[in-house]
Design goal:
single chain; about 140 residues; about 20% strand; alpha/beta; 3 helices; 5 strands
Length: about 140
């Protein structure tokens, strides 16, 4: 179980499509994002099968806070039924700074990653196509 979290419009769905090697999730061309409910996608790399979860941003302006909270509770229930989380992937735009509020990371870390074995966390930096050269964005 791999959970992809991050702000709305950061590219979570695009990261899932990249991992799948195909378009398994619809993506938006704008910065607002389009994911209004969480979803899971089976991705088979040929050597390993993963269940990757696309999540809703807590700061998604297009849906109310109550729906976001209900969605988070349902996601936690579903992931727990699948055996818990094995990897947390935090997606951030290249303009991200360490002082940015990390509400989603903290929620998933506290509610889904609290178990005997620590859950690894990876950070994926998106929106680098405007940085030239990309490798020097930091």
């Amino acid at each position: 179980n791999v959970i992809i979290c991050g702000d709305s419009g950061v590219g979570k769905s695009s990261v899932i499509n990249l991992l799948a090697g195909d378009q398994v999730v619809d993506v938006s061309a704008g910065a607002r994002g389009r994911t209004l409910d969480h979803g899971s996608y089976k991705i088979n790399t040929g050597m390993q099968q993963f269940l990757v979860w696309d999540t809703v941003s807590f700061r998604n302006a297009s849906i109310d806070r109550r729906r976001v909270a209900e969605n988070a509770v349902e996601l936690i229930r579903e992931v727990s039924q699948q055996g818990g989380i094995d990897l947390l992937v935090l997606c951030r735009k290249a303009s991200w700074s360490p002082s940015l509020d990390l509400d989603q990371y903290n929620l998933f870390k506290e509610l889904l990653c609290e178990r005997q074995v620590p859950v690894p966390v990876a950070v994926v930096v998106t929106h680098l196509e405007w940085h030239d050269p990309m490798e020097k964005w930091w």
